[in-house]
UniProtKB/TrEMBL annotation:
Residues 225-432 form the AAA+ ATPase domain. ATP binds at residues 233-240. CDD domains: DEXSc_RecD-like, SF1_C_RecD. This is RecBCD enzyme subunit RecD. One of its GO terms (cellular component) is exodeoxyribonuclease V complex. PANTHER family: DNA HELICASE B, DNA2/NAM7 HELICASE FAMILY MEMBER. It catalyses: ATP + H2O = ADP + phosphate + H(+). It comes from the Bacteria. GO terms for molecular function: 5'-3' DNA helicase activity; ATP binding; DNA binding; exodeoxyribonuclease V activity; single-stranded DNA helicase activity. InterPro entries: AAA+_ATPase, Coronavir_polyprotein_1ab, P-loop_NTPase, RecD, RecD_N, RecD_N_sf, UvrD-like_helicase_C. One of its GO terms (biological process) is double-strand break repair via homologous recombination. Keywords: ATP-binding, DNA damage, DNA repair, DNA-binding, Exonuclease, Helicase, Hydrolase, Isomerase, Nuclease, Nucleotide-binding.
Length: 709
């Protein structure tokens, strides 16, 4: 298996969802059904819990190592499924629920027997009828016994499966999790380069003056105490501003101490996020002194893949422990999108003495690949850790260390950060006795949206459905719930009635926005058309189905056709594009300087041709529509695709409350895309389900971090 993870745009979509629910609803001919699958694997596949790939991998490896225990082969298939759904390991508690549910669903039919795909036809019948029905429930009821069978299996002896902390891993993810924990521990023990406290305090006063920037000042001080730090915060809490200040002050210190410029790189898991980070850092620098601006001027940015030297033809990155990155400081933004594998590769490529700053919002949707690394690191490291440095001032060595925790009940009401020591007194960083400092700094005050959106976002983040519904029913028009009747996916009449109600609710905003776009685009007003894109966005949880993006894009096109008497749909005007069509790039196009997630709109240029005005890093540029290979029509988009972007008003279409995609992280991500107003369209049951249901990603990283201290 290649050690190089695929870039996000090439990765399979995974949304993490309730473990016991089938992954799909199998219908004959579905490509996810494994032809000839027999026994327990076949049953779980037929029930939608396992996909063909899970079955094939497990049965092939089972045969290769001659694994005699069908439960262990099924465990391997479930571990492959777990990784496919975003976990780094299999949590037997959740897997037990699948087995017990599958048993229940299969009761009355045959049980579980010999495992395999496309066997000779005689292996299964007797075994299947031979009372293994109920073995799923038995395994679920005796997790210890189940784990012992896995630990003592041939698949474990051959290091295909690993058991640690009561979790079952595929070998690769077990190794990566240990490596990440070991590298982080080692990095925590490396003393950070010393700083000149006087120079730093003067710099902080210059870059972050006044009371409103106290959180940022504290975060920079905390970051300077260690080689590895994590900066967390919700949307608009000033993460980018902190990065800009941190980098310029580090550069100033470095110039003084080393007499050469600091080598800094800004990175992110996606090209769009990397480019936007650089742009935002330069915007933040615009308000600084000329000398500080100059320090940030030529700053580099790259995707993490590019930074590490990804090459399609190689199985490993060019940068690793033997050939580490040359940079003194590596900042990774949108770290919530880092997978376990990419984090492992990143950690081995950053020099042990170089500073690594991970920046992100752990409450947002995680990586499309396995792992929720940022959330795990915050949970596993957010307590005082020895730094390998002493932070005493000489006169007061006994004082508590500075632990940054900027806290407020509402993300919209600025409060002074809570500091456990006098934050005006800067530690002199001299290697001496270890003193604990948390490597995690949290920014809490949002400077982007108003109190109502802040309250709703906080209620969702805290998993409080009553508070979320209370926020939605407040007088403040900035948040609203357009309530639909509760529906079940199985009831076509209910769904039809709810869809009609949703159409009535959504049509005015969606059509009004589309008509505005079209008017600007038809008049060749490129700047106004691109600005209009940021006015409204319809977000869906699903891509397909009645509540999915494609059906709402088609609806909007139909409404536009009715309203303008001009048919608008793909294929129109010969190019497949129509004037005012909102676009979203779906794959990086380095030739055109476009990144996955960049928005744009089709406009008519001075000579009457249709061109695509793309809002990419570096500003708006137009391209002939025929040049754009990987774009989709964006009258609506998925919440996943909306990560990292904002709109003045956001409408969120909630699917029925049984949808496996409806999770707290999804709703939080959707709501926090709004700058001024967010409208949820769905049932109260759907809001409750989303707030309560967490994306389940099994991982042992937090435990591994704690154990390996
Ligand atoms: N402490 C502050 N006082 C006043 N304004 C602030 C403060 N922090 C940030 N801002 C302003 O709020 C806006 C958002 O800040 P910034 O881009 O740094 O936040 P962010 O957390 O990086 O946002 P996101 O990641 O959601 O894009 C900017 O206009 C910035 O100038």
């Amino acid at each position: 298996m290649s050690d190089v993870p695929q870039p996000p745009e090439a990765a399979a979509s995974s949304d993490g969802s309730p473990a016991a629910a089938p992954s799909f609803d199998p219908v004959p001919g579905d490509r996810r059904l494994a032809l000839g699958a027999t026994g327990w694997l076949g049953r779980l596949n037929a029930g939608g819990w396992l996909e063909a790939a899970d079955v094939h991998v497990a049965s092939r490896l089972g045969v290769l190592v001659d694994e005699p225990d069908p439960l262990v082969v099924v465990t391997l298939a479930l571990a492959v499924r777990a990784v496919r759904e975003g976990s780094t390991c299999l949590d037997p508690t959740e897997a037990g629920a699948i087995l017990a549910t599958a048993d229940g669903a299969l009761d009355g039919s045959e049980g579980v027997g010999g495992e395999g795909v496309g066997g000779d036809g005689d292996s299964s019948d007797e075994g299947e009828r031979e009372g293994v029905g109920g073995e799923g429930r038995a395994a679920a009821a005796d997790l210890g016994g189940w784990l012992q069978r896995v630990t003592g299996s041939r698949l474990a002896a051959e290091s295909v499966l690993r058991v640690e902390h009561g979790l079952v891993y595929l070998d690769r993810y077990w190794r990566e999790e240990r490596q990440v924990a070991d590298d982080l521990r080692s990095r925590m023990a490396v003393p950070a380069a010393s700083v000149d406290p006087g120079l730093l305090e003067a710099g902080l006063d210059r870059v972050f003056p006044g009371d409103s920037w106290a959180e940022q000042r504290s975060a920079v001080r905390a970051s300077l105490a260690r080689t590895t730090t994590i900066l967390t915060g919700g949307p608009g809490t000033g993460k980018t501003s902190t990065v800009a200040g941190l980098v310029t002050l580090l550069a100033e210190q470095h110039e003084r101490a080393a007499g050469r410029p600091l080598r800094v790189v800004l990175a992110a898991p996606t090209g769009r996020a990397a480019a936007r980070l650089r742009e935002s850092v330069l915007e933040a620098a615009a308000g600084m002194d000329a000398s500080d601006r100059a320090r940030l001027e030529g700053i580099e940015s790259a995707t993490v893949h590019r930074l590490l030297g990804w090459n399609r033809s190689r199985t490993r990155f060019a940068r690793d422990r033997r050939n580490p990155l040359p940079h003194d400081v590596v900042v990774v933004d949108e770290a919530s999108m880092l997978s376990l594998t990419l984090t492992a590769r990143l950690l081995e490529a950053v020099r042990p003495t170089a500073r690594l700053v991970l920046v992100g919002d752990p409450d947002q949707l995680a990586s499309v690949e396995a792992g929720a690394v940022l959330a795990d690191l915050v949970a596993g490291l957010d307590e005082p850790q020895p730094t390998g440095i002493d932070e005493g001032h000489g006169e007061d060595d006994a004082r508590e260390p500075t632990i940054v925790e900027a806290a407020t009940d509402s993300p919209t009401e600025p409060t002074e950060p809570v500091l456990t020591s006098d934050d005006r007194r800067l530690p002199m960083l001299v290697p001496r006795s270890p003193v604990p400092v948390s490597p995690v700094s949290a920014l809490r005050t949002s400077h982007r949206f108003g109190p109502a959106i802040g309250r709703l976002a906080a209620a969702i983040r805290d998993g409080d459905p009553d508070a979320a519904l209370a926020a939605l029913s407040s007088e403040d028009d900035a948040v609203r719930l357009v309530e639909l009747p509760a529906t079940s996916a199985d009831d076509a009449d209910q769904t039809r009635a709810a869809l009609l109600a949703a159409e009535t609710a959504v049509r005015p905003a969606l059509l009004g926005h589309a008509l505005q776009l079209r008017a600007h685009a038809a008049a060749g007003e490129t700047t106004a058309a691109v600005a209009q894109l940021g006015e409204h966005r319809l977000l869906c949880a699903h891509r397909d189905g009645p509540w999915g993006v494609s059906s709402w894009v088609r609806r909007t096109q139909r409404w536009l056709t009715e309203a303008t008497a001009d048919p608008v749909r793909s294929g129109h005007h010969g190019s497949g594009r129509y004037v005012g069509e909102p676009l979203l790039v779906t794959r990086n196009d380095l030739g055109l300087g476009l990144f996955n997630g960049d928005p744009g709109v089709v406009v008519r240029d001075g000579s009457g041709r249709l061109v695509a005005a793309m809002d990419a890093a570096g500003g708006v540029r137009t391209h002939p529509v025929a040049r754009l290979a990987d774009v989709e029509t964006a009258h609506a988009s998925t919440v996943h695709k909306s990560q990292g972007s904002q709109a003045r008003t956001v409408t969120v279409l909630l699917p029925d409350d049984g949808s496996r995609l409806l999770t707290r992280e999804l709703l939080y991500t959707a709501v926090t895309r709004a700058q001024e107003q967010v409208v949820l369209v769905g049932s109260e049951a759907a809001v409750r389900a989303a707030v309560i249901r967490r994306t389940r990603r099994a991982s042992g990283l937090r435990r591994t971090l704690t154990d390996r201290r």
